[in-house]
Each structure stands twice: as C-alpha cells, then as structure tokens.
User: What shape does this take?
Amino acid sequence: MLRASLISLIALGVVAQEPAKAPVPAPSATPVTVQATAPVAAPAPKPEEVVLARVGGEPITEADFQAAFRLLGQQEQMQILMVQGGKDEFVKRMAESKLLSVKAKRLDLDKTPNYLRAVDRTKDDLLAREFLAKEGEALQKKLVVNEAEVKAFYDKHPERFKQPELASVRHILVSVKKGEGQPGVTDAEAKARIAKIQGELKKGVKFEALAKKYSDDPGSKENGGLYADADPSGWVPEFGAAARTQPVGKVGAPVKTMYGYHLVKVEGRKPARQVPFAEAKEPAEKMAQQERQASVWTALMDDLRKEIPFELAKPAPALKAPEPIQTPEPAKTPDTGKGGAQ
Assistant: This one.
C-alpha cells in the first residue's frame, strides 16, 4: 500500500500544498484616492495563530488544517475546496478525532507498545512523503513521456493493442430456477414461454419489444436485449458460440445456458484487428506512463539502496491478522424519499 501511495505521489508530482485562497477582487475602474490619514491594515495572522476549534483546551489551528489537507488525495482536496461547507465539515472531523485522542490520553493509551510502534511507523510514512515532496519537481521531469516515446511503446507492444472479434447481439432470457425458492420458472415452463415468444416473433412483433416485455436479464432488458460491440469470449460458452456463429439478422434456435433459455439475434460482427496508433494513442500513453512510473520508482530505490543498507529477511511464518478496530460511521441524513437519486 505504501509503495502504491508513494508511486501515486511521484506521478502527481506532489509538493507542499495549501488550500486555495479566495481570489483577490479586481481593482475598480475608477481610481480611488487614499487619504494620507487612512489607517494601515493590520498584518494577516499566521496560520498557527488562527484557531479553528478547541478540544480539551487544545487548539486546532489553520496550520493543523493545512498539514492534514496536504496528506489527502487530489480528489478529496478538490471536494473540500469546491463543496460549500467542505472545509467546515473537515475541521469538524478533525475536532472529533481530537476528542477521541484526548480521551485516549486520559486512559494512558498513548503509552501502550502497539501505539508507540504505530507512531514510529506513521513517522516513517510521513517522512517518506516529505522526501518525495522535496524531490517532486525532479521526479516529475523524469515521468514525462513525449509522443515519440508513446509511439515507441505502441510499436514495442503490438499485442496490447489487438482488438478481438466483437459482436452486437440482442437476446431474450427466460430464467430457469436452480432449486426450490429460487427465482425463475421450471424447465418446462421456460420452454413454453420461449415457444410463445417465438410465436409472437412470427406474427411480426419486434424483437426489441419482446425483450422489454419478457426478458429476465436486467442488464439488457430495457435496452431491447442489446449488448453492443462485446467480446463473445467474455460470455458463457453456449451464448458466446451463438454470437460468433448465428447468421446476422436472424433469430436462432433457443440456446440453453446456466441461466436458462435464450433467444439470440446477432445484429452484427466486427472482425479482430490491430488497432491503429491514431485510435490507440490515449491508452498507449497511459500504459507508457505507468511503465515510466515503475521505471522511475525502481531507479530511485536502487539509488537509495546504494547509499543506505537495505535487506529483506526471509518470510516469517504467517501470523493471524489482528482484529480491526471498529469505528462507527458518521450519522447520515435520513432519506425522505422525495426525488432522491436511486
């Protein structure tokens, strides 16, 4: 986990960050004459002087908030900055954590061996972050991949840019229950329902309409049974075989799978192909970037190992994982059921 988080720090080129400051208003178009007797504005207080909360007599300052803010991921930072009241909510969480901390100290839990070991481990992680922040600009330069390097990656790994045969199919599923109390119908009932659907197809009822009416597949039912441009190898074998072999535009014989009976109509197929660079450029760039990140990380670790003794012991016998500390989730606003997103 630490390696992943540190690679993420390198990739983002993390440097010491502070919450975004409010924009300075633009000067008025009309010049304002300042009287010589105007009072001089008091200097802005330092972050460590701005108290945001007090818990047990101990302050939580703007400097504390900024230090905690720096440790958050980019998405969490944006939520705090952009959502109204985001900072206030975060400070409340800090105060609640402080509340628990003060109580723990009163119980002398800050003197237990497990706590002291965890503090040392946390210090290592924080110092590692500080080192990467210090080296962030130099590491970021090493992470840059230009278009020529992306093209070279594409040419070196053609197998990663092969598109398999794709099929677009519509289907109607009639589920067969697998046991007592399970959803679906019996095998005989499923066959009778399939025959009824086939009869309606012969009368000219559109396949899409029948899929919406009869299909038991929630993933495609409302879309007229359609799965577009999918790799048949990802489907159960019987269904995938029908998608690859049935005549295009025709409804085939019922197909039995582990889910029940399907009526399948192949809408079209696309042959396997090598995706040209123009189409593959964006994913190729991401893959090249990931490869570069791994390379930069390995080089950084190799350089540090030359400077600092480093040894991994043989794996110790597996230990039983400690029981996690259960912490209650924050209270949620009750759902009124009035127009909320489902």
Notes: The radius of gyration is 31 Å. DSSP finds eleven helices and eight strands in the chain. The chain has three domains: 2-16+47-143, 147-160+275-307, 165-271. Residues 147-160+275-307 form one domain.
